[in-house]
Amino acid sequence: MIQNLLSMNGYGLFVWASFSITIFSCAFVFYKTKKTLKKYEREFAKEINELSTEKKELVLGNSKIASQVLSSYSKTI
Amino acid sequence: MFNLLSSSNIFYWIGKLISFINSIFFILLLIALSFALIFSPPDYLQGDSVRIMYVHVPSAWIGLASFTCIALLSITNFIFKIKNLTLVTKSIAPLGLMFTCLAIVTGSLWGQPTWGTWWAWDARLTSMIILALFYLGFIFSHKFILQEEKANKISSIIVIIGLINIPIIKYSVDWWNTLHQPASIKLTGTSTIHSSMLIPLLLMFFVMLMYCALIFLMKYKTEIIRIKKKNLKRL
Known about the structure:
The complex is a heterodimer.
Chain A: H1 2-7, H2 12-50, H3 53-62, H4 64-76
Chain B: H1 7-39, H2 53-80, H3 83-115, H4 123-144, H5 148-162, H6 165-175, H7 195-233
Helix pairs in contact in B: 1-7, 2-3, 2-5, 2-7, 3-4, 3-7, 4-5, 4-6
């Protein structure tokens, strides 16, 4: 059965190549997108943490996004 | 209502949606792949090579739909100048390009056992290559033109011109004699595909749409953080 699944009656090379290329491309784009998102979140959280207490309070008070990023970042570390 | 559409609320819901899609995606992918590779029957003429359809057709649909979406949003942005729409189009474009390229590559892999050639300069294949070039034009205009206003204008013009190519791709198999077969699935009229193949095809399409939503949301979230980061520097 596995032999049949792999060979696909002689079309295995074409079928498996198509599925593999699609899955690997999707996985690569997912990995890169996630990495970029994490990088931006990390940098953003770092920049907020580097602000003076006064400015930090101002930013966190005015921007819910900043506080969300900061809390999710502190959960990951 | 306006509170619901505020960027912080959108940001919150994007996070929730990403977690939700992440939690169900792999199960759905396994189901769709099992149907596509194991449970669906081989074609009476093309044999098992027909299974390539389950990645080729959804990729092509997504490539076309993404470009149409980008073009319509660009036209809206051109008229109403809504900044959020630029973020949306910038997040969709790389996905559209990837799926257009996948449609071309998997089509080539399907062409070899079916037509006996990897490539032919026929109307459908050539118009898909042109679509990929329009995607590249859109992405590069945002990457290499530093003035945001100018980049938006040029990229909008590129996609609006590129929109002409969409009906050409769709009807190329009807207007010209091509190696590519005519559409088997029709929105209006009866489809010529059996349900035993249609169900795996729609399942794979749904899974790919979920993947697109996931990548789009992650890219959109990145763009929002990038803007917030820029604003932080102004303090």
